[in-house]
Design a protein that fits this description.
The complex is a heterodimer of chains A (323) and B (322).
Chain A lengths: L1 H28 L3 H6 L5 H11 L5 H13 L13 H36 L4 H15 L2 H15 L12 E3 L2 E3 L4 H34 L2 H8 L4 H38 L5 H10 L3 H29 L9
Antiparallel strand pairs in A: 1-2
Helix pairs in contact in A: 1-12, 5-6, 5-8, 5-10, 5-12, 6-8, 7-8, 8-10, 10-11, 10-12, 11-12
Chain B lengths: L3 E12 L2 E13 L4 E5 L6 H8 L8 E9 L2 E2 L5 H7 L4 E4 L3 H4 L6 H12 L4 H14 L5 H4 L9 H13 L5 E5 L7 H18 L2 E5 L3 H7 L2 E6 L2 E7 H6 L4 H7 L50 E3 L2 E3 L10
Parallel strand pairs in B: 3-8, 3-9, 6-7, 7-8
Antiparallel strand pairs in B: 1-2, 1-4, 4-5, 9-10, 10-12, 11-12
The chains are: A mainly alpha (323), B alpha/beta (322).
């Protein structure tokens, strides 16, 4: 178990190094940091001095190693646009994105899994067919369109839910939460539905097809031959076996939710990291972009690890114990 | 009175290009405590017969006509819930591949307990004690320590023993064993057959044993039914069918067995192949491959009638004409 975690962490290192290299390379090839820091008019001497202080006159690889050293200490540089440490900016925005993504994920799971089971068990019922058509719409409609439609209906027409922002938030040392105020809770509903819609329909379809697959397996046939009730077969045997493969996908989807919250955050002006990134791209704020890229890579690696650990908890075959 | 009485059973699959008749007028019985062997080439309808009896035909497959009577009561027309209560409790089943028959995520003890508690009124504690007893009875070493082990922690042969325990744990009077040893190592096959025979004798259980192994049939069964293209072509006491087969097809199958003691792992090949369901010839289904075919065989269908010391569906031998 410990060896497994260690092996996974070691495997993650090359991935992170490559991503770090890309985010480092952004500084080199996208825009000129001297222009960003000194403005348009500067002398050759000023430029040389600046290059020296920034270490830009050193060989490429040496610069990369220095960059890694700084990143490991949590130093992601200074935002060109806001002139504040990037680490600080991201830390400020992180809670908003995490809360939004988690709400979306929980929503997607709570709706997607039961509907998937239902359409899997009663695959010929009218309601199941209707659900499949609806899920096709959910998969194919672009996120921003879903967001705009929701705003149009619930915020503009009915006026029952806010269309932008995060509502009132409560501070806990480094964390901020909107879950504790009613305006915060209301504000998260539409963005969470928008962000979770794709994942929800994906989970629905995945659970359904896995369920159909498992229902055809020999052990379900044998469970029937043992005279178990359909209830026991569906829930004690089929569902648990369905959820094992579903776990991986859902775990990875959580990473996607955080990464792709960019569009939703833009539509709803949600003050998270995605919105920060969009604003930074508009201003060629390389340090923020590069740090965001790294952060997303770390999120994916972490989630992968957690999913693998969940497998251990769920699947006795992986827990070892020989014949 | 026979424990199981199947009469004129027909199973059909409606398809876009017409209805396929996969079982055609199958009739046979199984007495209490009897072991009936069922042999025949792949696709003959052996598994389908078992599925029809336990009411687990895969839709769109359905019983089109005929009757299945178990313990004096008709069971082919029961509703789903009534049939479910019979499965496991009165008629058990053992499948071919023990590696895929057990739920990989549930311990074997829990699967046993769940099966027993579905059919019998048992407290958790009694059910657990019985689960351990059953594991011991099927020969799992250290049963009380391994009762909550998962299927992957057992070898293939041990898993098939667990499957047998699961099939028998609610004390059914009939067990349908569909090629229970085909997926196992040759060295283990004999052990499993011996175990099944012992348990059947101890508990007075009848078995319908589907197998390709003529040696197993000869050693284990009381009677044997030979199937061909969805029909029973010969049925009778095992010695008679093996020693003096009446139907040319059975003769072909037995041709390579010199004596009851000799073991032949697979059915002998007969020239040609069994027809597909959509191309079963008129008259006797075996006529294109039969070396003794007559004109009549291509027109009329022979019924299963007493012939010599067995019953056979062949014009050559009927009415003791041999
Ligand atoms: N769902 C189905 N649709 C159409 N035909 C089917 C279906 N299921 C089974 N059959 C047909 O029914 C016939 C009997 O199949 P069955 O599985 O009973 O054969 P078997 O004698 O058990 O063969 P094997 O020795 O290979 O197990 C086969 O010809 C098969 O093609
Ligand atoms: S009925 Fe005719 S074709 Fe069929 S087995 Fe007998 S002899 Fe052969
Ligand atoms: Mg079969």
């Amino acid at each position: 178990m410990f060896a497994f975690i260690l092996a996974r962490l070691l495997q993650a290192i090359p991935v992170l190094l490559v991503v770090a290299f890309i985010s480092f390379a952004m500084f080199q090839f996208v825009g000129d940091p001297l222009v960003a820091l000194l403005g348009q008019n500067f002398t050759a001497e000023e430029a040389d001095r600046m290059r020296h202080t920034l270490g830009l006159d050193q060989p490429f690889l040496v610069q990369y190693v220095h960059f890694l050293g700084r990143v490991l200490q949590g130093d992601f540089g200074i935002s060109y646009r806001l002139a504040r440490p990037v680490g600080e900016l991201l830390a400020e925005r992180l809670p908003a994105t995490v809360e939004l993504s988690l709400t979306a994920a929980v929503l997607a799971l709570l709706v997607g899994v039961p509907l998937g089971v239902l359409t899997g068990i009663k695959r010929n019922a009218v309601i199941s067919r209707a659900m499949m058509v609806f899920s096709l719409i959910g998969v194919s409609l672009p996120t921003f369109l879903i967001g705009i439609l929701l705003i149009l209906f619930f915020a503009v027409q009915l006026g029952v839910l806010p269309s932008y922002g995060r509502g009132d938030i409560v501070h806990f040392s480094h964390w901020t939460t909107g879950f504790l105020t009613s305006s915060g809770r209301q504000a998260v509903i539409l963005p969470a539905i928008t962000l979770g819609m794709f994942q929800m329909t994906l989970i629905l379809r995945l659970v359904r097809s896995e369920m159909l697959e498992v229902m055809r397996s020999d052990f379900i046939k044998f469970a029937r031959a043992r005279g178990l009730t359909s209830r026991a077969i569906n829930f004690n045997h089929a569902l648990s076996n369905t959820l094992v493969p579903v776990f991986t996908i859902v775990g990875l989807q959580l990473g996607m939710l955080i990464a792709f919250s960019i569009v939703t955050e833009t539509v709803f002006q949600w003050p998270g990291m995605g919105l920060l990134l969009v604003q930074s791209i508009g201003n060629a704020d390389i340090p923020v972009m590069s740090a965001y890229l790294l952060l997303i890579a770390v999120v994916f690696v972490t989630i992968n690890l957690v999913v693998d650990l969940l497998y251990f908890a769920v699947d006795p075959r992986l827990r070892g114990g020989g014949k | 009175m026979a424990l199981l009485e199947v009469s004129q059973l027909c199973v059909e699959f409606p398809t876009r290009r017409g209805t396929l008749r996969a079982l055609d007028n199958i009739s046979f019985g199984i007495e209490p405590g009897e072991i009936l062997g069922v042999v025949g080439e792949s696709g003959a309808g052996k598994s389908l017969t078992g599925s029809a009896i336990i009411g687990l035909l895969e839709p769109p497959g359905r019983v089109a006509s005929g009757q299945i009577i178990f313990d004096g009561k008709r069971i082919d027309n029961l509703d789903q819930e009534a049939m479910r209560a019979i499965r496991g409790r009165h008629i058990g089943a053992i499948f071919q591949d023990p590696l895929t028959t057990l739920d990989p995520l549930m311990s074997v003890g829990k699967q046993l307990i769940e099966t027993m508690q579905t059919h019998l009124k048992l407290s958790d504690r009694d059910a657990k004690a019985r689960a351990i007893q059953w594991l011991e009875e099927v020969g799992i070493p250290a049963a009380s320590e391994r009762v909550f082990a998962y299927p992957h922690q057992f070898s293939g042969g041990m898993r098939q023993r667990v499957v047998i325990a699961l099939a028998l744990c609610a004390e059914p009077r009939l067990v349908i064993a569909d090629e229970p040893t085909t997926a196992l190592d040759v060295s283990i096959q004999a052990q499993i057959i011996t175990l099944m025979r012992r348990l059947a004798a101890d508990h007075g259980t009848s078995i319908m044993l589907v197998t390709h192994d003529m040696g197993v049939i000869a050693e284990t069964c009381d009677r044997v039914a030979v199937m061909y293209a969805g029909r029973i072509v010969e049925i009778g006491p095992v010695e008679n069918v093996v020693r003096s087969p009446q139907h040319p097809y059975t003769e072909g199958l037995m041709g390579s067995i010199p004596s009851l003691e000799a073991r032949v792992a697979r059915l002998r090949q007969i020239d040609g192949a069994m027809p597909r369901l959509n191309a079963i010839p008129q008259g006797c289904a075996f006529n294109p491959r039969c070396t003794k075919v007559m004109d009549r065989c291509r027109e009329e269908r022979p019924d299963l009638l007493p012939a010599g010391t067995t019953e056979a569906a062949c014009f050559l031998v009927q009415g003791g004409a041999r």
